[in-house]
Amino acid sequence: MEIILKQDVDKLGYKDEIVKVRPGYARNFLIPRGLALVATESAKKELAETLRQRSHKEAKVLAEANKLAEKLATITLKIGAKAGESGRIFGSVNTIQIAEALAKAGITIDRKNIDIQEEHIKELGTYEANVKIHKQVSQKVKFEVVGE
């Protein structure tokens, strides 16, 4: 029996995938729990249309993410920090400060999508952070820690 999965099912398949299973498994387990529906001709056509529309939307989102990545490649952020005479800063630079500096530059990125290459930044200088824009697109951003 062919079914269309509505959700990811372990060891069976992923959402919006057409799979072949035994009729009893489909009738008694998958369909009553809302995990799947019977793959009739109309359901297959509806699935094909949904996938086509979703791929079109994802292509737009991916293009916007690539534009943002190109913009991030040209930016060098300046992050101010209180520093001592020797160039060591008080505290350390974290992803929140990088997200705020990006927001001042007109780019909104969630701080959870920013990964600093160094473990702890405690000195003045130039560093890089990896920014995940989309599940397929990430870009390195240069930032400079300057004393205030």
Structure description:
Strands 4-9-8-6 form a four-stranded mixed β-sheet. A three-stranded antiparallel β-sheet has the order 2-1-3, covered by helices on one side. A two-stranded antiparallel sheet has the order 5-7. Strand 8 and strand 9 form a beta hairpin. By secondary structure, it is α+β, with helices and mostly antiparallel strands. The chain contains three helices and nine strands, in the order E-E-H-E-H-E-E-H-E-E-E-E. Helix content is 35%, strand content 31%. The model has no long low-confidence stretch (mean pLDDT 90).
Helix content range: 25-40%
Rg from Cα:
24 Å
CATH topology of the largest domain: Ribosomal Protein L9, domain 2
Label the overall shape. elongated
Q: Report strand order across the widest sheet.
A: 4-9-8-6
CATH superfamily of the largest domain: Ribosomal protein L9, C-terminal domain
CATH architecture of the largest domain, please?
Answer: Roll
Q: First CA to last CA: what distance?
A: 69 Å
> Spans of 5+ residues with little confidence (pLDDT < 50)?
none
Structural class: alpha+beta
Number of helices: 3
For the biggest sheet, the summary is:
4 strands, mixed
Which H/E pattern describes the elements? EEHEHEEHEEEE
Total beta-strand segments: 9
- Number of domains in the coordinates? 2
